[in-house]
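Appendix C: a fully annotated inverse folding record. The material below is reproduced so that readers can follow the format used throughout the book. The structure is listed first as tokens, followed by the designed sequence.
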């Protein structure tokens, strides 16, 4: 009978428990234990990792509080470049986009669009190796970004380990999404900066980007950034190998343990997309985070593959923007 040292068993047990509790609290917004119980289990795990340093792992919940400041960020190449989106500013330009991509492929009768709210935050590129978060990077110029893994680990809604049932075959998974500051947190941070006589952040997007570039991840941990995932890639395999559509990719991201913005909608026509855009023009002002548009994508990965990219943008997506607005004070 293999004897497992009690401290090894206990740290693994605590990690699982705390991970489930953190996922339930930050991603599902449905706590499974009292805060006091979480804190007690957390302290026990921290003590064990101090006592047995060899038991600390990169996916332990204790990395969420951040570590001593980095001196600078190293720049890293994205395994898969982050593309930018072409902009449209009204329904006519949305229609024009629809006509444009249709001219590139043989006539298609029915097509599915996925409409998603465009989150006004800072893009992140996450890399998971065998289900463990190994790197978090800023968008940079789309090809190279800055390695901000320590900071990314403090974002509670970003899983440190993927919920991987049946996906163990995926050695490396690339996830893209938007880190953002909820409006309440943004206002709080600016009030603190006002009191400290520091310059205020102009809007939640700058506040998120500024926070992510903090060298001291303990400050990042206190700022309560949040994250919505929106794209999934498996390097070396075409995306259709694990999901055939953007719609399925969003469901897979949720299954893996990411927060996905709940307001995404499958649209069967541009008219439906236009309705979604008009609905959220006013409705989005009631959301607890800033948005600046709607991202419309053709859902089929096969069709995305056929259409490909222009010099700068994917042909199969468009960012339908709302007129710029002032950030709330
Ligand atoms: N630059 C990009 O490709 C994107 C940027 C964003 C954004 N800021 N928010 C949401 C989405 C989305 N749901 O796809 C995208 S996609």
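Designed amino acids, in order:
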């Amino acid at each position: 009978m293999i004897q497992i040292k009690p401290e090894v068993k206990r740290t693994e047990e605590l990690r699982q428990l705390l991970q489930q509790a953190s996922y339930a609290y930050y991603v599902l917004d449905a706590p499974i234990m009292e805060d006091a119980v979480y804190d007690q289990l957390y302290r026990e795990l921290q003590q064990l990792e101090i006592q047995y340093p060899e038991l600390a792992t990169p996916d332990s919940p204790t990395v969420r509080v951040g570590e001593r400041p980095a001196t600078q960020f190293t720049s890293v190449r994205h395994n898969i470049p982050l593309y930018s989106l072409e902009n449209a500013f009204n329904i006519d330009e949305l229609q024009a986009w629809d006509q444009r991509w249709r001219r590139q492929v043989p006539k298609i009768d029915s097509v599915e669009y996925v409409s998603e709210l465009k989150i006004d935050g800072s893009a992140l590129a996450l890399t998971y190796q065998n289900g463990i978060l190994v790197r978090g990077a800023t968008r940079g110029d789309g090809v190279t970004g800055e390695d901000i893994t320590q900071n990314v680990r403090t974002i509670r809604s970003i899983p440190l380990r993927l919920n991987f049932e049946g996906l163990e075959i995926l050695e490396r998974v690339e996830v893209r999404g938007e880190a953002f500051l909820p409006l309440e947190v943004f206002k709080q941070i600016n009030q603190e900066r006002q009191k400290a006589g520091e310059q205020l952040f102009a809007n939640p997007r700058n506040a998120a980007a500024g926070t992510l570039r903090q060298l001291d991840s303990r400050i990042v941990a206190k700022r309560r950034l949040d994250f919505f995932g929106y794209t999934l890639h498996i390097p070396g395999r075409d995306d259709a190998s694990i999901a055939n559509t953007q719609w399925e990719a969003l469901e897979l991201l949720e299954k893996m343990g990411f927060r996905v913005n709940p307001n995404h909608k499958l649209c069967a026509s541009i008219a439906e997309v236009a309705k979604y855009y008009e609905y959220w023009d006013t409705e989005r002002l009631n959301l607890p985070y800033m948005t600046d548009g709607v991202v419309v994508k053709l859902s089929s990965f096969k069709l995305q593959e056929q259409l490909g990219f222009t010099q700068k943008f994917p042909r199969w997506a468009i960012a339908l923007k709302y007129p710029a607005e002032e950030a709330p004070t």
